[in-house]
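Researcher: Can you fold this with adenosine-5'-triphosphate in place?
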Amino acid sequence: MLDVSGLVAEYGPVRALDDVDVEVAEGSITAVLGVNGAGKTTLLRAISGLLPPKAGTVRLAGRDVTRRAPEDLVRLGMAHVPEGRGVIVELTVEENLRLGGLWRKDKGWLRTGLSRMYELFPPLAQRRSRRAETLSGGERQMLAIARALMSRPELLLLDEPSLGLAPRTAAQIVATLRTLRAETGLTLLLVEQNAGTALSVADRAVVLNLGRKVADDDAASLAADDRVRRAYLEM
Ligand code: ATP
């Protein structure tokens, strides 16, 4: 589904990502792990077009999409939920969801999509007419994910969905991601600081350190790898 090769990204003189390869199989959940500043957020931004990479290629379902604009990528089936949620707080829950479906040509989807999102995230159904600024952190995260899902992506990039949430809320969100994958075959690339949470839901994981990939394996093997855990995962 996603094939990233030799990706390099820089912020001025700072090289934040150096020659990174990542493959994400269709229908899989892949976690991107690593300590603060490892380059995880930069990897997602370079894939989704928010930060044009200096070198390397990004292929989505076989098509070269390197340096395509984020809105083009949404049309091609890639959605990105950035760190810090990215919902529009002045709008209501339902207005945010409708915005997420704006690019869809199949207008019948809007109604189906809204009821699907309310089914997946019941707290949003109860708050559909409230402004997003009145939501709790967990509800905002649900809204950000649901809004991205309204574009009916094949690949969802998620940056730190459990950041700042109570463990119970984080667990609920992770469980919903599992349901989604099982029901829709959605492919997920998930950035997480909390390696334990990520490895419990992911099939595979890559570990970044100082912008380079230092491990790439199935999630169970990585969780059992003491060297990687001690050196890069604070587990
Ligand atoms: P975090 O969990 O803190 O978000 P991360 O693994 O996602 O960490 P990145 O945010 O990708 O790491 O940062 C990678 C490197 O790039 C770090 O050295 C960081 O200081 C640097 N960096 C990130 N954003 C910028 C920016 N806007 N300008 C300059 N340097 C940046």
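Model: Folded with adenosine-5'-triphosphate in place. DSSP finds ten helices and ten strands in the chain.
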